[in-house]
């Protein structure tokens, strides 16, 4: 019924005159949700055993693309780290200072120590700074291509700088 | 705080922009309604939220979820300096909540992007819910029975 109405309205037939306005009150634009449409797509293509068209293997990588997937990667990594920490807190018998002293006693060299700290600091600072970049986009700002690249380079530079500062300062 | 207000005000504007955009794409007919003063394209009324509400089918859940995600992000951003300058149980538990929720919604988006097929989606989301619950429980346990998140980071970095 909705499909019929939409077709007729598009062609501008008599139904578009005001006295037929009563039909529009119950017209629904789309019969399915986005989720349903997506499921239909995947069900159909999986059932037909279609191979997926190559995309990330053939498309030329760009800085925005790489920054986007890095944002996702650091996010998943950080989240996994927090969950692992929480799980260990529930499962391990000793207290946090005890395990910290345990790691101290291993006498890891300063180079490796700095590297480990960088391994924690960089994902955190990158994800945070790129997150702020995302929030700017959410407010509608900075979508032109030069702006995207410029803000991207700023995020990368600041991430490295703040990570190094965090290691050097503390 | 200002960021939140600004984002929400821009969201409303953006929504209105889409409202007119979709009506223009549907070959509008401009007529004067005898009983109403509005003169915007008639087909716009099909997409108008009033007619959708009459059909009873538009849910604000997705839109509210989106806004919630941004609010938690900004909150988490504010908790960073708060943890540095005012460490203590208040920030510890707020961090536990904000970190868990931000991570839960974030991984949720990743699952939505890469997991397909209704049963797999349900299982993945159930697993995520379990993980997030355990994460929050673990963080709260750590805050209560151990040094707390702020102190833990301070101790770790003093190494």
Verbal overview:
The complex is a heterodimer of chains A (170) and B (159). Chain A is an all-alpha fold and 170 residues long. Chain A is built from seven helices and no strands. Chain A is extended. Chain B is built from seven helices and no strands. In chain B, helix 4 (61-85) runs antiparallel to helix 5. The longest helix of chain B has 28 residues, at 118-145. Residues 3-8 and 10-26 of chain B have low confidence and may be disordered. Chain B has helices at residues 2-25, 44-47, 49-55, 61-85, 89-114, 118-145, 149-157. With 159 residues, chain B is mostly helical.
Can you tell me the overall shape of chain B?
Answer: globular
- Percent strand of chain B equals under 5%
Counted beta strands of chain A: 0
SS elements, strand count of chain B: 0
Average pLDDT metric of chain A? 87
- Classify the fold: give the CATH topology of the largest domain in chain B: 3 helical TM bundles of succinate and fumarate reductases
Name the poorly predicted regions of chain A: none
Helix/strand order of chain B, N-terminal first: HHHHHHH
Q: What proportion strand of chain A?
A: under 5%
Give the CATH architecture of the largest domain in chain B: Up-down Bundle
- Helix-strand sequence of chain A: HHHHHHH
Structural class of chain A: mainly alpha
Which structural category fits the helices and strands of chain B? Answer: mainly alpha
Largest interface: A-B, 50 and 53 residues
Average pLDDT over all residues of chain B: 79
CATH structural class of the largest domain in chain B: Mainly Alpha
Radius of gyration of chain B, taken over Cα atoms and rounded to an integer in Å: 23 Å
The count of domains of chain B is: 2
Largest sheet features of chain A: none
Number of H/I helices of chain B: 7
Pathway (chain B): Carbohydrate metabolism; tricarboxylic acid cycle
InterPro entries (chain B): CybS (IPR007992), SQR/QFR_C/D (IPR034804)
Membrane topology (chain B): Multi-pass membrane protein
Pfam families (chain B): CybS
